[in-house]
């Protein structure tokens, strides 16, 4: 259990690592020309920050890599946390709404919002292909990719990998519940299409 002064130190470090990136990302998401993508990625950014606070600072439990490794995070790692969770949120949405959302358009919105490098685009493309064609293999592959991408080492401990799988699943579940709380996701998508059709006339 963290002593109060240790908790405050971790909280301050988390804010330093992630707060600046959060505001810049929200601004980029707000500049997208599709209102569904705007609401999707702005909410993803907010939820990623809340997830980071909960798991890096508050949740001291077995195999929680976030809690153990927060002191090693640098500025780029904070941005990477937003990016890897956005990849997961995007892939899960596309798995459920393939007929309503064009994968290419959403991928471009993802890249534009988070400033993906060519290597990050390749990683997302491979993870999406795995999710579409080998869905049962996607959760463990994503957990391994998450560990390597965020912490820069291979996570081999099965308990740590299971923790990462559950973390990603619960992150999307909470995010999706809130996204569809007042307006369904299908309705949000349709409204964005109507707005684009109106602009195109």
Describe the protein's topology:
Layout: H1 4-30, H2 35-58, H3 65-69, H4 75-96, H5 103-114, H6 118-133, H7 138-151, H8 158-179, H9 185-200
Helix pairs in contact: 1-2, 1-4, 1-5, 2-4, 2-8, 4-5, 4-6, 4-7, 4-8, 7-8
Any overview of this molecule?
The protein has 201 residues and is an all-alpha fold. It has helices at residues 4-30, 35-58, 65-69, 75-96, 103-114, 118-133, 138-151, 158-179, 185-200. The N and C termini lie far apart (60 Å).
What is this entry, summarized?
The protein is mainly α.
Comma- or semicolon-separated keywords:
disordered N terminus; single chain; mainly alpha; 9 helices; globular; about 200 residues
Oligomeric state of the chains present here: single chain
Query: Given the C-alpha coordinates, what overall shape results?
Result: globular
Span from first to last CA?
60 Å
Taking all Cα atoms into account, the compactness measure Rg is 17 Å
Low-confidence stretches: 1-8
Please outline the major beta sheet. Answer: none
Beta percentage is under 5%
How many strand units?
Answer: 0
pLDDT averaged residue by residue: 83
Could you give the order of the helices and strands? HHHHHHHHH
Tally of DSSP helical segments:
9
Helix percent reads: over 70%
Structural class by helix and strand composition:
mainly alpha
């Amino acid at each position: 259990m963290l002593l109060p002064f240790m908790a405050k130190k971790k909280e301050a470090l988390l804010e330093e690592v992630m707060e600046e990136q959060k505001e810049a990302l929200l601004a980029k998401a707000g500049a997208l020309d599709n209102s569904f993508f705007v609401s999707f990625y702005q909410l993803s950014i907010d939820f990623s920050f809340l997830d980071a606070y909960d798991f890096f600072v508050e949740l001291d439990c077995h195999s929680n890599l976030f809690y153990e490794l927060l002191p090693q995070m640098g500025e780029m790692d904070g941005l990477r946390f937003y990016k890897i969770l956005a990849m997961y949120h995007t892939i899960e949405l596309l798995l459920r709404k393939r007929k309503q959302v064009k994968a290419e358009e959403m991928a471009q919105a993802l890249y534009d919002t988070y400033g993906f490098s060519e290597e990050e685009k390749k990683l997302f493309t491979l993870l999406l292909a795995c999710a579409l064609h080998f869905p049962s293999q996607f959760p463990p592959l994503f957990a391994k990719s998450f560990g390597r991408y965020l912490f820069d080492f291979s996570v081999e401990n099965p308990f740590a990998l299971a923790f990462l799988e559950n973390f990603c699943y619960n992150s999307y579940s909470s995010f999706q519940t809130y996204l569809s709380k007042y307006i369904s996701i299908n309705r949000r998508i349709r409204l964005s299409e109507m707005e684009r059709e109106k602009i195109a006339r």
